[in-house]
């Protein structure tokens, strides 16, 4: 008789543990799905209205530093500004701004270029261009084309 009670207790224990494990797995899955879906919702909330006025600085082809002229960058750059009137200043200062960008790109080595997203280069461009602007600021830099050969 002792075997019958022990096996009944063991069976009940196994069933209860199984149900608890299923509940924990379900709660964990729900939590993870909720967490990851909420992050995507914030990214999807960006609308075209959130992007300010833009200005195309043009195409650039420059040699990489330390490459002996054998490697070069080909890039097309667009900037986002905080106010529409800054676009007029960018147009007037176009030669000066292009010179600054060419200087920044020529200072880069292959290791600098291979950084994902080119965040360092973009930050340099924003900082250096904002130093010469008087009517507003550049908020973002986008590479619409970026090739290293």
List the helices and strands and how they pair.
Layout: H1 2-44, E1 54-63, E2 72-81, H2 85-92, H3 94-106, H4 110-113, H5 119-132, E3 138-148
Antiparallel strand pairs: 1-2, 2-3
Task: Explain what the structure shows.
- This protein has a 3-stranded antiparallel beta sheet, with helices on one face.
- It is α+β, with helices and mostly antiparallel strands and about 150 residues long.
- Helix 3 runs antiparallel to helix 5.
- The chain starts with a helix and ends with a strand.
- It contains 5 helices and 3 strands, in the order αββααααβ.
Mean pLDDT: 83
Strand order of the largest sheet: 1-2-3
- Summed up, the domain count is 2
Q: Looking at CATH, which topology of the largest domain would you report? A: Tetrahydropterin Synthase, Chain A
Low-confidence sequence ranges: 40-46
DSSP helix fraction: 55-70%
Largest sheet, in brief, is: 3 strands, antiparallel
CATH superfamily membership of the largest domain, which one? Answer: Band 7 domain
Query: Over all CA atoms, what is the radius of gyration?
Result: 29 Å
How much of the residues is beta strand, in percent?
Answer: 15-25%
């Amino acid at each position: 008789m002792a075997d019958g009670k022990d096996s009944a207790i063991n069976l009940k224990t196994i069933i209860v543990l199984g149900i608890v494990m299923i509940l924990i797995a379900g709660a964990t899955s729900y939590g993870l799905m909720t967490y990851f879906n909420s992050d995507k919702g914030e990214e999807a909330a960006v609308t075209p209205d959130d992007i300010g006025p833009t200005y195309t600085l043009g195409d650039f082809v420059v040699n990489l530093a330390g490459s002996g002229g054998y490697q070069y960058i080909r890039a097309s750059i667009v900037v986002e500004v905080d106010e529409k009137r800054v676009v007029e200043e960018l147009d007037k200062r176009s030669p000066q701004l292009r010179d600054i960008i060419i200087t920044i790109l020529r200072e880069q080595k292959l290791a600098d270029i291979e950084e994902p997203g080119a965040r360092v280069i973009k930050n340099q461009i924003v900082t250096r261009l904002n130093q010469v602007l008087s009517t507003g600021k550049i908020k973002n830099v986008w590479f619409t084309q970026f090739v290293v050969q």
